[in-house]
Design goal:
eight-stranded antiparallel β-sheet; Umud Fragment, subunit A; about 20% helix; 2 helices; alpha+beta; about 190 residues; three-stranded antiparallel β-sheet
Amino acid sequence: MKRDETMQNEQKPFSWKDEIISWIKIIVTAAVIAFVLNNFIIANSRVPSGSMEKTIMTGDRVIGSRLSYYFSDPQRDDVVIFHFPDDPTGKTYYVKRIIGLPGDTVDIRDGKVYLNNSETPLDEPYLPEPMEPEEEAHFTVPEDSYFMLGDNRNFSADARRWNHKYVKKNKIIAKVLFRYYPSIKKIQ
C-alpha cells in the first residue's frame, strides 16, 4: 500500500492554485508572528534627538521589552519608551531615563539632582557633561507615576519642560534593552 501512496504523491500534477495558497499561508503566518512580536513582546523605536546622548545617539534604533513591567515595576535608572504626556493623541513616543519613582521628591539645584531630601546628589555616571545650573525646581512624583529626564540634560526636552511633568505607569511602553542600529550595544 505504501508504494501506491508514494506513486500517487509523485504523480500529482503541479497546481498554481495550490502553490499560491501555500505562499499565502506562509505570508499570513509571518504577518501574524510579526504583529504579535511588535505589539505584545518588543517595541522598536528610532531616537530622533540628542536628548539621551551619549547613551543613545541621534538616529539610533532601539529595541525594548514590552514584557519587562508586566511582572515588576519600573526602576530608577531604567531607560524606557513611553507615550509623551503632553500629546493628547498618545502617538508621540519618547525615550528617557526614570529618575523619580512614585512618592519620590526630586529637587534640582546647582545643576544636580537630589532625591527625597538627600544632601548627596544622585550619582549619574551616564551624563555626558555636568548639567548647567538653572532655576531651582522641586517635584513630588504622584503614585503610579514616574519622573523622566534625558541623559543629555543641557539639551533635553524632558519633564522639567513639560506641562504634564509625570508619566503614568500605564503609559510606559517598554524598557529599552539594546541599540541595534548603527551597531549593537546594550543600554544601561
